[in-house]
Design a protein that fits this description.
Blueprint (H helix, E strand, L loop, with lengths): L7 E7 L8 E5 L1 E4 L8 H15 L6 E6 L2 E7 L13 H7 L1 H13 L10 E3 L6 E3 L15 H5 L21 H10 L2 H12 L8 H13 L1 H6 L19
Antiparallel strand pairs: 1-2, 3-5, 4-5, 6-7
Helix pairs in contact: 1-6, 2-3, 3-5, 6-7
Length: 244
């Protein structure tokens, strides 16, 4: 469910003879790089962009570039107006699309994203289209050793005060999204991690995180059920999803 329109900077010349009506164009994007205290932003972003797309969540296409010698992650610019995006209204989004909300929550639990708030989701209330972005603090959110956060959160949802988890009421749609997460091919996970190894993920941790993510996705039902404080309004009595 990706966005279908991205911001065009300008239209260029025709590609050339023999290419019917094709033109060069420049599309805008939003770039970010690592900062002091958060040296894994680029790695986190490329991993989560690849995995979210594989699951089928509405994440903008993203890719890596270098400026001088520094790696940057670029996310395609879906904000056509150019104005500051307003924070979403979690209750409204939940009322209009509870299934997608469950998918976002479950994905964030899979990738240990503690930073999903009302300003890193976009909700067009006219069309009800939704975009998720900003995964800078998933998996490796600090300058601590890369495995430390994942190891500490192995049996916890690890989604912080998630703006959608607090209003989620029904777990019945988790099954659909859990199956999607389970259907992500092992090579897709490995490819995302190998790409991240080019921009800061320690090569020795590629195998660790691959096995970690493969194991964690199987245990998501229990991880969610074992910490109801993170989901204060969730009715687990409707839960029909399993690890099968």
């Amino acid at each position: 469910m990706p966005a279908t329109h991205y911001k065009i900077a300008n239209w260029g010349d025709p590609v050339g003879e023999g290419v019917s009506h094709s033109r060069f164009i420049n599309i805008t994007g939003v770039a970010k790089t690592n900062v002091p205290g958060e040296p894994h932003i680029v790695a986190n972003e490329i991993i989560c962009a690849r995995l979210a797309a594989a699951v089928g969540l509405p994440v903008p296409p993203g890719f890596l570039v270098k400026k001088d010698i520094e790696p940057w992650f670029v996310s395609m610019d879906f904000n056509l107006s150019g104005e500051m995006l307003p924070p979403i209204l979690p209750e409204l989004l939940m009322a209009r699309n509870p299934g997608l909300c469950a998918g976002i929550v479950l994905f964030d639990a899979w990738v240990l994203n503690p930073d999903r708030h009302a300003k890193n989701l976009a909700h067009d209330t006219t069309t009800d289209s939704v975009i998720i972005f900003d995964h800078s603090r998933a998996l490796m959110p600090t300058d601590l050793p890369q495995r430390q956060y994942a190891e500490a959160m192995a049996n916890k949802p690890a989604i912080g005060a998630h703006c959608l988890a607090t209003v989620l009421k029904d777990a019945s749609t988790f099954d659909h999204w859990h199956k999607r997460i389970m259907a992500v091919a092992e090579h897709q996970i490995a490819d995302a991690l190998n790409d991240a190894a080019e921009v800061g993920l320690e090569p020795g941790n590629v195998h660790f995180f691959k096995e970690y993510l493969l194991d964690r996705r199987k245990r998501l039902p229990n991880i969610v059920a074992n910490d109801p404080s993170v989901f204060p309004n969730l009715n687990l009595g409707t839960r029909s999803w399993t690890t099968e």
